[in-house]
Amino acid sequence: MKINWKVRRRNPLFWLQVFLSVAVPVGAYFGLTGADMTSWPALGKVVVDAVSNPYVLFTAGISLYNAVSDPTTGGFSDSPQALRYHQPKKGGN
After folding, report:
1. Rounded to whole angstroms, what are the CA distances from 86 to 16, 31, 33, 70?
2. Which of 20, 40, 46, 57 maximizes the CB count within 10 A of its CB?
3. Distance of alpha carbon 79 from alpha carbon 84, whole angstroms
4. In angstroms, rounded to a whole number, what is the distance separating the alpha carbons of residues 52 and 46?
5. What phi and psi, each to the nearest 5 degrees, are found at residue 79?
6. Could you tell me the residue ranges of all domains in the chain?
7. Could you give phi then psi for residue 50, rounded to 5 degrees?
8. Which is nearest to 72 in space by CA: 63, 61, 64, 80?
């Protein structure tokens, strides 16, 4: 499994995908909206409830796997071209 973590770390879109891949399954399972997260104790309770629930962990894990995997390759690793990048590629070329 070869993934170019150095480049992914520098890509804000990657971090947004990682955040949403965990936040969306948790929010969906508990029926939460942004208005429900108005205090740190409320957020802390949701995190504790999510971590103690195997179903939520499983769905968040699958979602995180989908955010990290490269769908343009046959396996889990990045393509040889992506492994050569030193920074996120700009544009579609």
Report:
1. 20, 40, 38, 17
2. 46
3. 9
4. 10
5. -70, 160
6. 5-83
7. -70, -45
8. 80
Cα-Cα-Cα-Cα dihedral of 57, 63, 9, 87, to 10°?
A: 170
d(CA 90, CA 74): 23
Q: pLDDT for 5-28, tens place per residue?
A: 999 999 999 999 999 999 999 999
| DSSP, res 87 | S
Whole-model pTM above 0.85?
no
Per the CB < 8 A criterion, the answer to whether 63 and 24 are in contact is: yes
Residue with tokens 């990048």: 85
**What are the structure tokens assigned to 35, written together?**
């208005």
